[in-house]
Amino acid sequence: MAQVKGKKAGFGAVLWDYLTTVDHKKIAILYLIAGGFFFALGGIEAMLIRAQLAIPNNDFLSAGLFNEVITMHGTTMIFLAAMPLLFAFMNAVVPLQIGARDVAFPFLNSLGVWLFIFGGIFLNLSWFLGGAPDAGWTSYASLSIASPGHGIDFYAVGLQIAGAGTLISGINFATTIITMRAPGMTYMRMPLFTWTTLVAAILIVFAFPPLTIGVFLMIFDRMFGSNFFIVEAGGNTIIWEHLFWIFGHPEVYILILPAFGMFSEIFSVFSRKRLFGYSAMVFATVLIGFFGFMVWAHHMFTVGLGPTANAIFALATMAIAVPTGIKIFNWIATIWGGSIEFTTPMLYALAFIPSFVMGGVTGIMQAAAPADYQYHDSYFIVAHFHYVIVGGVVFALLAGLHFYWPIMTGTMLSEKLGKLEMVIFFIGFHCTFLIQHWLGLWGMPRRVFTYLDGQGYNAANMISSIGAALMAVAVIILLINIIKTLVKNEKVGRDPWGDGRTLEWSLPIPAPYYNFAQTPLIRGIDVLALEKEEGDGTIPSAGPVEPIHMPNNSFIPFMISLGLFIAGFGALYFASGKPWAIDAVADLPVRPWALYVLIAGLAITFISMGVRSWKDDLGYYITKEELEADLRELEARERGAN
């Protein structure tokens, strides 16, 4: 809660503080809350899918509604849950890990989170405004062009708004890590989570523009009658597949690399050892980022690109397994001989290794193009990518939530409930997706809303649905844990896990809004562990206490995002009933007010941008006297706690 002269601020003051904040630690909370909400929403959609498929000939969901649910499940989980939750941890931890007082562009950091939130809301309002998108989360052009109604338009415009926020955040984190490291924090002293964030941020900068272009072309085709993807008018639907997967495969590594970074930190802390093979891990991270752009067409082996293209992309796909294997062996070597503490984050990390390896092995199986012809569009594929995304990314998100919860909130989640949640989630995960490999090999196609009795799929689908229910139970236990912890509000001191090794654990909890009163001096890898070994764990300072320049809060990012949100509705409905639009949109009722809504929304955005440009917002300074008073108060508080 916000503090005003030692007293808790009221709800209105706290709300205004979060609406206008440019502090990376509060923006982390916004990402956590919004990403958590969308994660729950995507989970509910997953439960609907598994309820429909639990028994044969089920009519729980209609065919059309099932298509909408699977589309929104995939889109929500990738764009609105996994990525924002990773941004929550990046915001909470990375500036502290590198000794920075904030990110490079605090204003843009705020703009990024509000663009994501408004884009996510826009996309999900489709449920209430005529139907959600129904062409799958990849929205292949042949399906999306033919889709009636505005569902696909909600997908396209919503992803443009949310994707702009992600691109801004990628630029911001790459700039922050490259330019704002503390003295002594060389590249080869950076923690692995910072390294993986840097590579993921660079991937975002190069991978999101192709998606942006593809979605714009889709908008033009559907709303303005262009012919990029319309085959009978000379277009080519394969263009969409290339543009989507040139984004979509690096996206897998944008998600998994920060997850790898979090697991590296967790293995090191709870094995009480320095990470084995640090240099090899760094180079493996960079190699994975590089190869991530060379494998996109392995999603297109059945398209007919020819044997040469298939062979090249098959080879690249096999090659990318090598740096990933290096990481696996180094994690095992870190654990080997360590003084292991079986905390909830460590249990998730230990469960991650075999789970992710299973997903990786089935990925290499699909790298053989002839074999992929058999696996393609079967439940084998569904099993594979859920083993990678859930067994890798979601395990990391849950481990990171428990691990970094003290830094984000100043409290500790219950270990007892955490371990119960972990065991149930682990069992439910393997119960859900392991059996789907056999379903695929037995011939069950993906994206079918039902199946006939007597095909041999009944028992396996029921087992899979029971596993999904177990995962839902685990998430409910997590929510109970979070609520109990927030209600009890028992504060913890610095380094609550007792063996923090990197700079973020050296700070008091909660960290001051300026992070570091004095710029830290970094003398080696695992700087906190180094200073504990050589002294009392105090991080040396690179200079005396000096005034700190801080940015002012701003309401403008919220208004820019709100303007684009409003303009999105105008753009979407402007094409309704227009003769130049595609038939699926031209047949809808004319909306004469749409142009005015479009203009009004853009006016809000551009006026807000103009105010930002014309206004001299020079921030403010925290004086040396205020900092020294803060340090004295902190020392007294910690002496009292001890």
TrEMBL record:
Catalytically driven reaction(s): 4 Fe(II)-[cytochrome c] + O2 + 8 H(+)(in) = 4 Fe(III)-[cytochrome c] + 2 H2O + 4 H(+)(out)
Transmembrane segments: 28-49, 69-94, 106-129, 154-180, 192-220, 243-263, 275-297, 309-333, 345-365, 385-405, 417-439, 459-483, 555-573, 593-611
GO molecular function: cytochrome-c oxidase activity; heme binding; metal ion binding
Annotated localization: Cell membrane
Membrane-protein topology: Multi-pass membrane protein
BP terms from Gene Ontology: aerobic respiration; electron transport coupled proton transport; respiratory electron transport chain
A Pfam family recorded for this sequence: COX1
Family stated for the protein in its record: Belongs to the heme-copper respiratory oxidase family.
Identification of the protein by name: Cytochrome c oxidase subunit 1
Organism from which the protein derives: Phocicoccus pinnipedialis
